[in-house]
Amino acid sequence: MNILKITNTIIGDVKVVEPKVFTDDRGFFFESFNEALFEKLVGQRIRFVQDNHSRSYRNVLRGLHYQLPPHSQGKLVRVVAGAVYDVAVDIRRSSKTFGQWVGVILSADNKRQLWIPEGFAHAFLVLSDTAEFLYKTTDYWYKDLERTIHWNDSELSIQWPLQEAPILSPKDLAGSSLSMADLFA
Ligand SMILES: Cc1cn([C@H]2C[C@H](O)[C@@H](COP(=O)(O)OP(=O)(O)O[C@H]3O[C@@H](C)C(=O)[C@@H](O)[C@H]3O)O2)c(=O)[nH]c1=O
């Protein structure tokens, strides 16, 4: 029995990971990360070095964030309380899907994870009163290499499920346009 299922999104390198959940009278159990299975299903060697955890209120939008080489980050993201709309944007200039984005609902209920490889900008919008967001990264945080593309960039036209203006950090309010951003080759 496979305890991890991986589905491709419309951008092949971005994958939805669905763990098998074992439910019984006590509650549930699942393997939230299994290196051997994950690498087999993703088809490459992956070394995670940092785990992050954030908590945000409804309508908070964090992103679109990425780090430049030589410290770009792959991220395996999930939600353990509440729900978010999670978005990955292909910012690899040489990619056939350059400028395209994928949006997936990740929630404590659906237990889905999203694998976002290097070369993508990432953001999420909180859909519940609060959301706790956990993610593993393949490199450490380098403040000087961190970049932000504006969440509402007109070239990207991401269809955010928003009812009102999102709550943003000053850094995210000042995000760059796609056309002016430092991108990947
Ligand atoms: C990302 C990061 C931030 N920090 C600090 C810097 C700052 O004082 C505080 C909050 O940082 P930020 O405002 O950048 O947090 P946040 O907006 O949650 O940033 C995150 O957004 C999502 C969408 C991502 O994809 C992540 O990679 C990361 O960029 O935490 C670290 O110490 N280590 C880290 O790895």
From TrEMBL:
The pathway where this protein functions is: Carbohydrate biosynthesis; dTDP-L-rhamnose biosynthesis
Q: By what name is this protein known?
A: dTDP-4-dehydrorhamnose 3,5-epimerase
Q: What is its EC number?
A: 5.1.3.13
Leader sequence residues: none
Picking any one GO biological process from the record gives: dTDP-rhamnose biosynthetic process
Q: Where is this site: Participates in a stacking interaction with the thymidine ring of dTDP-4-oxo-6-deoxyglucose?
A: 141
Quaternary structure, from the entry: Homodimer.
Q: Where is the active site?
A: 65, 135
Keywords from the UniProt entry:
Isomerase
* Keyword match Ion transport: no
Residues binding substrate: 26, 31, 50-52, 62, 75, 122, 146, 171
Q: Tell me which stretches of the chain form a coiled coil.
A: none
* PANTHER family in alphabetical order: DTDP-6-DEOXY-D-GLUCOSE-3,5 EPIMERASE, THYMIDINE DIPHOSPHO-4-KETO-RHAMNOSE 3,5-EPIMERASE
Q: Which reaction does it catalyse?
A: dTDP-4-dehydro-6-deoxy-alpha-D-glucose = dTDP-4-dehydro-beta-L-rhamnose
Which class of enzymes does this protein belong to? isomerase
Gene Ontology MF terms:
dTDP-4-dehydrorhamnose 3,5-epimerase activity
Its annotated function is as follows: Catalyzes the epimerization of the C3' and C5'positions of dTDP-6-deoxy-D-xylo-4-hexulose, forming dTDP-6-deoxy-L-lyxo-4-hexulose.
Q: Which GO terms describe its cellular component?
A: cytosol
Among NCBIfam families, the record links this protein to: rmlC
Q: Can you tell me which family this protein belongs to?
A: Belongs to the dTDP-4-dehydrorhamnose 3,5-epimerase family.
